């Protein structure tokens, strides 16, 4: 049996990868998106630009990798769609949106309007990747009879869009009182009707 081909190039160094992602995240959080260049990331991480380009195809991919590493833990989905779980997770999300994660989401969405690479990286790496997990949770809730049978994408939009709207527009605060009223209204609409 033929052996699989040996991958070209050196294996990623975990220390160097962590340094690159930490540098990108730190630059994004403190200096902003425009300052988060491959040159600046390489300088801060003490690696060459060639090393970064060997592992990531472009600046957007590095930035999204750094953002996603932080956001995965900071913005988890609830385990199931019940009042307590949804309130807890959306409240945690609102709190995270008051800090660096929220600033980054704002910047990445804004920059994505004029930079197709950033838009695609944000959509594919963050929004659509997370939605796969969310759709599974919605399907499980429908199967368990916790919520009415409806389009999972519409349900996720209904639950999450108000937080992004307040984050981006800033017309009202992302407060615990807002989250509680929003979750209550949303779940009242999703609760199966008695026959």
Automatic annotation (TrEMBL):
Residues 37-56 bind DNA. It holds the Pfam family TetR_C_11. Residues 14-74 form the HTH tetR-type domain. The keyword Transcription applies. GO terms for molecular function: DNA-binding transcription factor activity; transcription cis-regulatory region binding. Keywords: DNA-binding, Transcription, Transcription regulation. This is Transcriptional regulator, TetR family. It comes from Bosea thiooxidans.
């Amino acid at each position: 049996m033929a052996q699989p081909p040996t991958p070209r190039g050196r294996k990623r160094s975990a220390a160097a990868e962590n340094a690159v992602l930490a540098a990108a995240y730190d630059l994004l959080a403190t200096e902003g998106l425009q300052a988060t260049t491959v040159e600046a990331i390489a300088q801060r991480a003490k690696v060459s630009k060639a090393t970064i380009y060997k592992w990531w195809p472009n600046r957007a991919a590095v930035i999204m990798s750094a953002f996603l590493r932080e956001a995965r833990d900071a913005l988890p989905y609830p385990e199931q769609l019940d009042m307590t779980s949804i309130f807890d997770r959306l409240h945690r999300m609102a709190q995270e949106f008051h800090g660096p994660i929220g600033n980054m989401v704002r910047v990445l969405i804004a920059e994505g309007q004029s930079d197709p690479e950033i838009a695609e990286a944000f959509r594919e790496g963050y929004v659509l990747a997370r939605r796969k997990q969310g759709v599974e949770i919605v399907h499980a809730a429908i199967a368990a009879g916790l919520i009415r049978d409806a389009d999972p994408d519409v349900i996720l939009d209904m639950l999450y869009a108000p937080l992004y709207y307040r984050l981006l527009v800033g017309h009202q605060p992302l407060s615990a009182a807002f989250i509680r009223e929003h979750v209550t209204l949303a779940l009242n609409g999703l609760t199966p009707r008695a026959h």
